[in-house]
Amino acid sequence: MTVHFDAIIIGTGQAGPSLAARLAGAGRKVAIIERKLFGGTCVNTGCIPTKTLVASAYAAHLARHAADYGVTIDGSIKVDMKRVKARKDEVSGKSRQGVEKWLKGLANCNVFEGHARFESPTAVRVNGDVLEAKQIFINAGGRALVPTMPGLDQVGYLTNSTMMEVDFLPAHLIIVGGSYVGLEFGQMYRRFGSQVTIVEKGPRLIAREDEDVSQGVLDILRNGGVNIEANAECMEVEKRGEQVAVKLDCAGGSREVVGSHLLLAVGRVPNTDELGLDRAGVKTDARGYIVVDDELRTNVPGIWAIGDCNGRGAFTHTSYNDYEIVADNLLNGDHRGVKDRLTAYGLFIDPPLGRAGMTEAEIRKTGRKALVGKRPMTRVGRAVEKGETQGFMKIAVDADTGQILGAAILGVGGDETIHSILDVMYAKAPYTVLQRSVNIHPTVAELIPTILGELKPMV
Q: Domain end: 279, 307, 340, which one?
């Protein structure tokens, strides 16, 4: 059976439902397709469930350190992993159910459950139905990358998705991958009570960050009891009875880690390999990401790619912005584009990292003259009062224009405080606007004007 629509949306991740609602509200007849779980990665295996787990881990950590605050807790601190998982499932489940209920209750919107495959540039097959539309939006998301690694086919392993089913405490969790996913799970499970070792192929954690940020994160994790093994260029996996061993050295070296469970956290791949994109003529790059222009149009007229599958952002907030770009361009006649978006993201270890704009390394590559200000969290009253003084704050400014080029806040409240800087960057206002602001005491943000008043040439 063939059914005609004005628009078809493939996937219910962050960008899809809002686009469906916006188009349907404008009187368009919309079809939205979901093959598995409503809400996509963020709702089911990403942001919402992992940050719920982080909250449980923080509660355990704070309970263990209650005496530091003059609070006595009688008895030992125990973590009930089944209850931790149940809480996570409840929070994530409510969000997923909310997305499904919202979509199925939308006027002018038809929900199809099944796997979508292109039949042509204007037709998509779902189960036994063929859906046709002049506008199709691919919002297929991504999944965990499983790397090619000797011996991996001989052992059991976890990914960020299958970690969501863990309701027990691994004795020793080995995590391959020293970036955002691996670091968050590493600290989390250490606080739950596991021994944790993070293995990183490169010389330092989160290599995209400046070296001082990488070192600061390393210090935070090591201070919390997480083991770090870097420079593991030739990893090989081996089953050792009931355990798993990860060999770390080239040419048969002796360095290895033996643990009870293995988590792979080495990146993501787009869910574009089973969409029949060749039948629509949609181009992908060497990594499988759909190639799009600044307004998220593919090479085929009438087809857009939004969210993680287009390689133009890897976050929930960038996916939502993709929806805003496409909807405003289509319905309001705007010409918004990805070029208008500033880099911004968080690393949700504790304390967190908030990042905006360029790193110092990126600024140096441009050849610009820049100024930089930096302050350790030991000199931030709010952090001292809370007893959480790890990390630092750093802001870089263009020496000629006075515009803020980038910032990193690694410390308590860093994931929220960074937005005061980010907003000024979007306004393209000079740093003096922030420098002369009167911020509330005692907060982390009150030190931003102080830092901007102590700028020095970047060396």
A: 340
3-state secondary structure of 360: helix
The domain spanning residue 43 has which CATH number? 3.50.50.60
Q: And the tokens for 166?
A: 């863990």
Residues 298 and 10: their CA atoms lie apart, in Å, by 14
Sign of CA dihedral 398, 402, 408, 410: positive
Strands (E) in 377-450, as ranges, are 392-398, 404-410
| pLDDT digit string, tens, across residues 165-213 | 999 999 999 999 999 999 999 999 999 999 999 999 999 999 999 999 9
Task: Let me know whether 290 and 232 are in one domain.
Answer: no
Q: Is 264 left (phi over 0), alpha (psi -120 to 50) or beta?
A: beta
368-387 tens-digit pLDDT: 999 999 999 999 999 999 99
> Taking CA 374 as the corner, what is the angle to CA 368 and CA 376, rounded to the nearest 5 degrees?
160
Which residue, 74, 13, 97, 32, is CA-closest to 268? Answer: 13
Beta bridge partners, 174, equal 197, 262
Q: Which of 340, 357, 375 is the last residue of a domain?
A: 340
Which residues does the annotation mark as catalytic? 441
Residues 231, 248: Cα–Cα separation, whole Å = 8
Q: Is the pTM of this model over 0.90?
A: yes
For 228, phi then psi, to 5°, come to -125, 130
Domain identity same for 256 and 179 = yes
Distance CA 17, CA 13 (A): 7
Residue 335 shares a structural domain with residue 378: no
Long-range residue pairs from 98-104, CB within 8 A, at least 24 positions apart, any chain: 99/12, 99/17, 99/38, 99/39, 99/43, 100/12, 100/38, 100/39, 102/17, 102/21, 103/12, 103/17, 103/20, 103/32, 103/38
Q: Residue 131's domain spans which residues?
A: 2-143+269-340
Q: Rounded to 10 degrees, what is the CA torsion of 69, 75, 76, 82?
A: -110
Q: What count of other Cβ atoms lies within 10 Å of the Cβ of residue 411?
A: 28
CA–CA gap between residue 12 and residue 140 (Å, rounded):
8
